[in-house]
Amino acid sequence: MTNEAVTLEDVWVYYDNVLALEKVDLSIKQHDFLGVIGPNGGGKTTLLKVILGLVKPSRGKVKVLGDTPKRSRRFIGYVPQRSQFDRDFPVSVQDVVLMGRLGHMGCFKRYSDEDKRIVHEALATVEMLDLRDRQIGELSGGQRQRAYIARALVTEPKMLLLDEPTASVDKPLQTGFYELLQDLKQRMPIVLVTHDVSVISVHVDKIACLNRKLFYHGSKEISPQMLEELYQCPVEMLAHGVPNRVMKEH
C-alpha cells in the first residue's frame, strides 16, 4: 500500500442543486491524525461520507486505500455523530461491540471464538474490558464513545473516521479519549471532525478548515485569515503560551 490513504481531487458535491462541497483537494497519509473543523452545514459530515462511498461526488476523483471508496468501505471504522438507542434496552457493552463483526459473518452463523477474541482485544484497547457485561444505557457519554470505537475497531479497519465523537463527553473525560486516539494513530490514519478548535490543536497532527471549500496546508497551524475565510466574518485570535499550539508567532 502507498503512503496515501485518501486522495480527493477537485471534488464537488450537490444535494438537490445545493452546493455542499466545492473544489475539495485533500491528501491523507498513513498514520496522519487529521482534525477537520468548520461551521454547522459546512460539509464536514459530507466529506466523511464521500470517503466512505456513501455520497458520490458530482464531479472529481476519490481514491481510498488504493481503491474506490465503495470497495474500501469495509476497511474503514466509522463512529457517527449520534448513535440513537433505547437506554433501557437490555444489551450489554460486549453485545454492542460484537455487532461490529456482523460483516465478517455469513448468513445464519453464530459468533465464532475468533470474533469473541477480537472483541476482547478491542475492549482491552479502549480500557472497557471490566465493563463488558454492563448494560450500554448505564454508561457515561465518554464510556459509550469508547464502546463505539471498540465496535469500529473489531471490523479490523485500516482507517478510522470520527464525527463529533466528544459531543456528549464531559471535559474531564476528553483527555483520556484523545490519549486513546494518539495510541490508535500508530496503527491507522484517523480523521476527526469536531467544533472544538482548542482541543484538537493539542492532540491532532494536522488541521483542515472546511466550509464548502477546504483550507488545508498539511500542518496544525491556524491563521486568522484561514478562520475569516472559513466563517466569513472578522476573527481575532488570542494565543496563550510560547510556542503556541496553533500559531507560530503571536
Principal-axis shape: globular
Structural class: alpha/beta
- Approximate helicity band: 25-40%
Q: Strands of the biggest beta sheet: in what spatial order?
A: 5-6-7-3-8-9
Query: How many whole angstroms does the radius of gyration measure?
Result: 19 Å
Q: What composes the largest sheet?
A: 6 strands, mixed
Order of helices and strands: EEEHEHEHHHEHEHEEH
Q: Number of helical runs?
A: 8
Number of strands: 9
Strand content: 15-25%
Give the CA-CA distance, first to last residue.
Answer: 40 Å
CATH class label = Alpha Beta
CATH architecture: 3-Layer(aba) Sandwich
Q: Indicate the CATH topology.
A: Rossmann fold
> Unreliable segments (pLDDT under 50, ≥5 consecutive)?
none
Domain count: the total is 1
The CATH homologous superfamily is termed: P-loop containing nucleotide triphosphate hydrolases
Average of per-residue pLDDT values: 83
Give me the oligomer status. single chain
Protein model, in words:
- This protein is α/β, with parallel strands linked by helices.
- It contains eight helices and nine strands.
- The radius of gyration is 19 Å and the shape is globular.
- A hairpin with a 1-residue loop joins strand 8 and strand 9.
- The chain has a single domain, classed as P-loop containing nucleotide triphosphate hydrolases (Rossmann fold, 3-Layer(aba) Sandwich).
- The mean pLDDT is 83.
- The strands form two sheets. A six-stranded mixed beta sheet has the order 5-6-7-3-8-9, sandwiched between helices. A three-stranded antiparallel beta sheet has the order 2-1-4, with helices on one face.
- It is 30% helix and 23% strand.
- It starts with a strand and ends in a 19-residue tail after the last helix.
